[in-house]
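Friendly challenge for the regulars: who can give me the structure tokens for this chain first? No prize, just bragging rights.
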Amino acid sequence: MNTIFRPVLGLVLGAAAVFAPAMSQPVQAQTTLTLNHYMGFGHPFIQGLLIPWGEEIARLTEGRVTLDIPNGPITNRNEQWNSITGGVADLSIHFDGARAQQLQLMQMVALPFNSAPTAAQSSVALWRTYNEFFADAGEFDDVELLSVWTVVANYAWSKEAITDIAQFDGLKILTSGGLPSDVLTTVGATPVVAGGPQFFELVSGGAVDAVALSPDGLARFKLGQFMTHGLAVPGSLYNQNWSLIVNKDSWNGISEADRAAIMSVSGEVLATQAGEQFDTDFAAGLETLASEGMDIAAPSPALLAALQDRLSSFEADYIAAATAKGIDAEAALAFYRDQIGN
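First reply, four minutes later:
Bragging rights claimed.
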């Protein structure tokens, strides 16, 4: 697909591979997959993960399939799914929280206190759980799913230390939509839902009292200067997950052999690499914030117990929703937790 957004270097990845085949070989159709993303082109996830992934795809398919990464988004975050089903783009890094009511099963990883110590563990566990329990449920029937991943954890960043559950009452916390917003509402806070481009303005202008975000996110958006304390809840208050999805027609237009080649570096392989990228960014974010004097602490046993009590309904609600879709939800949760060693 074509788009007016093009990075300077074009990202016709693996160009050398396009010209490598001998002249005697038959000409084969070439496919360029255009990625719709809402991250900046310089984002570590684009530079450290998806550009190398695209280069590997070009190499494995001998240039028959290449990846085009525009400088900026083709649509906003909440329209990523529709951009794929509508044929506006071929590939999307889809934030599953934007369609939480449709992708209910994938919200397992977002449940309170349900995150692994590393994003690599959670990402691989979610991919395996999807294939073991969710693949036939139809949530991704409109697209092809290539991989999934999660972040490590989201902390609550505030202007004063949160030591008592009552401090959440009415606290305006910047967050993303979907389950994170529901979690914060349930603990008593007032979620303020926005996308990355609005973060700095909202925080610097005093429109929010606190931020729920990963350490690397807080550091990347330069929000640490406005907060002084971080609350690191074991297993995370909630997590977030993404899917790499592709348009069905675009996918079916690729030969079976080349689809197999792409999947050999997608699926669990890409989930692991994506998780490791988030783990690296997470550690760097913590280091940056610590150097700036951020005070980060775990909740006291009393505060943790109070949070667990307020959020106890989320797992039961998830089990009910998954069961209604014909899933053995308790078995799926047990499988996921076994994968992360929980």
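Confidence is low (pLDDT under 50) at residues 1-27. The chain has two domains: 15-97+127-148+240-282, 155-238+294-339. Your move, everyone else.
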